[in-house]
Structures are given as structure tokens and as C-alpha cells.
Amino acid sequence: MHDPRHPPLGGPPTPPPPPPDDGATRPAEDTAPPDAPHGAQTAGEPAPLPPFLGRPRAGTRWEVLAVVAAGGVVGASARYGAALAWPTSRGGFPWTTLSVNVIGCALIGVFLVVLQEAWKAPALVRPFAATGVLGGFTTFSTYAVDVERLIHDGKTSTAVGYLALTPLAALIAVWCAVAATDRALRGRRSAA
Amino acid sequence: MTWLLVMIGAAVGAPLRYLTDQQVRARYTTVIPWGTFLVNVVGSLLLGLVTGAVAAGAADSRLQALLGTGLCGALSTYSTFSYETLRLAETGHRRIAAANVAATLLAGLGAAFAGAAIARTVWG
């Protein structure tokens, strides 16, 4: 199954469907599960498989790899710059990495909803910005190793707090970003 | 100079994450986003090793910039992990979403601890 509104994050780019020109062309929300708004829970049967499960199309285009690499360079540079600007002392709470991850999660939520619902972007925009920039900006490995270092240094309470706060804040950030963007775009459409 | 090393590492790490995800999705049809899981666990193991080696004095900070901040940082991702978890929960796969979070945290932390322990044993 493939949900046209939410294609695979890293999948080869497919041109997004043209945005509806007005509210009338938008499918009814309560009849088609794949078009259910973000946050909506359809009753009964589970909805179709999430979109990132779709099989990739044959072959990987070199330009996709190139834009993912370029985006990764941009994102990692921004993360490194943040680490230099707001360094975390040894044994201190890693606020910079936490902020980078939470901001990246919020941005991917906003970006992917805008891309699918409002912006007919060129095909390489998604792999560049979502897979490249935001994927390279956020990091799981630094989070995991920071927890290990804090425990090794005897800062157990800081480690536990950081361990729990990061996934909680990241999930809340992406959920709020998706819901708010969805609502803003719908409001704009119905006002049009 | 250090900044350049971070950029080189990221230019390898990000496409590696993309390719891993593609390969996993081409081979397995499952609701679980194993590709993201895999890059996060491998990235954590490698970063544990690199950070441990640098802490023990067996490698210098340039290796940390190239392989740690650059490669592992761009290979692993929190944004895709969060977004995929949200999509699972929204499409009626709440238990799998919760399991994805638990499994990623458990395996990722286990990998970081294993990498650091190996580094201390070898170079400590």
C-alpha cells in the first residue's frame, strides 16, 4: 500500500501530487483512511502500512545520492557549529544535542507536511532537505554515547534525565509540528 | 580544518544511511523501519568505539571529527526515527511504534556501551 501524501522519507523522489486548488477537491477525511489527517485515529482495522514501507524503485540515481550527501554536509555543519557555539562541559547536561535533535524533529514534521500538502517542489528537494539536511543535523549516536559517558562518569541522574527527555521531547516536537502545520494549511485552504 | 573533516564524514554518512534504508526496504516487507534502526545502532557502536579510542589517547581529535561528528552523526538520525514512529502510531500501529522506540533505545544504548567497553579493553 502506498499513501500518496506521505511517501518514504528516503525513497527516490516522486513528484508530489498537485495541491488541491480549493477545499472542494480535497477528499473527504472520514472516508479514505490513507487521507486521514495527521493525528486522526481510524477506528477498527489498522490503516494501510505506513508509507516508508513501500519498495524503492529499481536502481538508485546518482543525483539523489549527491543531494543527500550535500544536505548531510549542511546539516552536520550546522550541528557542529551549534556544538562549538554552545559547548557542553564534561558531565554537564547535553542541552545542545538535545536542542539540535528536538529542533530537527520539529522541522522535519513541518517540512514533510508542507511538501505533501502545499508545495509542488522539485523531486530532489525532499531527499536533500529531509534525508540530507535534517537527517545529518539530528543524531542518535551522539545521544547514545553521551548517555554512556554520563553513566561512566558517575552522573547517573543526569544520564537518566537526558535518556528519557530526548525521545519524549523529540516525539512531542514532531507530533506538534505535524499537527500544527496540517491545521494551518487546512485553515488557509478553507479560507481561500 | 576540523570543520572540513566533519563535512567529509557527513558526505559519506548521510548517503550511507540513505543506501542502507533503500537496501533494507528492497529486501524486507515489514511495518518496522529497520533501516533507520540499523543505522542508529551501527552509528552508536562506531561512535562508542571512536570516542573510547580518543579518550584513551589512541586516536586524536581529528578522527573524532571525521568519524564521530561527521560520519556517525550523519549516519544516525533522530528526526527520521521520530517521524517514522509518529507515522506508525498514526496509521494504527501504536504497539509497533512503542516497540520501535523501546528497541531503538535499547539496542542503540547497548551498542554505545559495547563500543565504549571494547575501546577501553583494547586501548584503555
UniProtKB/TrEMBL annotation, chain A:
Compositionally biased region (Pro residues): 7-21
Q: What terms describe the molecular function in GO for this protein?
A: fluoride channel activity; metal ion binding
What keywords tag this UniProt record? Cell membrane, Ion channel, Ion transport, Membrane, Metal-binding, Sodium, Transmembrane, Transmembrane helix, Transport
The record lists the membrane-crossing segments as 64-86, 92-115, 127-145, 160-180
Highest taxon listed in the record's lineage: Bacteria
> InterPro entries per the record?
FluC
Entry membrane topology: Multi-pass membrane protein
Origin species, per record, is: Streptomyces zagrosensis
CC annotations in GO: plasma membrane
Matches recorded under HAMAP family: FluC (MF_00454)
> What does this chain do?
Fluoride-specific ion channel. Important for reducing fluoride concentration in the cell, thus reducing its toxicity.
Instruction: Give the family from UniProt.
Output: Belongs to the fluoride channel Fluc/FEX (TC 1.A.43) family.
Q: Is-annotated flag, keyword Iron?
A: no
- What is the regulation of this protein's activity? Na(+) is not transported, but it plays an essential structural role and its presence is essential for fluoride channel function.
Give any Pfam family that matches: CRCB
Which parts of this chain are annotated as the region Disordered? 1-54
Q: Does the keyword Protein transport apply?
A: no
Q: What is this protein called?
A: Fluoride-specific ion channel FluC
UniProt catalytic activity: fluoride(in) = fluoride(out)
Compartments, as annotated in UniProt: Cell membrane
The residues that the entry says bind Na(+) are G135, T138
Listed under GO biological process in this entry are:
cellular detoxification of fluoride
UniProtKB/TrEMBL annotation, chain B:
Instruction: Give the UniProt entry's GO cellular component terms.
Output: plasma membrane
Provide the topology term for how it sits in the membrane. Multi-pass membrane protein
Residues noted as binding Na(+) in the record, renumbered to the chain:
G73, S76
Q: Which GO terms describe its biological process?
A: cellular detoxification of fluoride
- According to its UniProt record, where is this protein mainly located? membrane
Q: Quote the catalytic activity from the record.
A: fluoride(in) = fluoride(out)
Transmembrane spans:
37-56, 63-81, 101-123
GO MF terms listed in the record are:
fluoride channel activity; metal ion binding
Cross-referenced InterPro entries, in alphabetical order? FluC (IPR003691)
Spell out the activity regulation. Na(+) is not transported, but it plays an essential structural role and its presence is essential for fluoride channel function.
HAMAP family cross-referenced by the UniProt entry:
FluC
The protein in question is named Fluoride-specific ion channel FluC
Query: What organism is recorded for this protein?
Result: Streptomyces zagrosensis
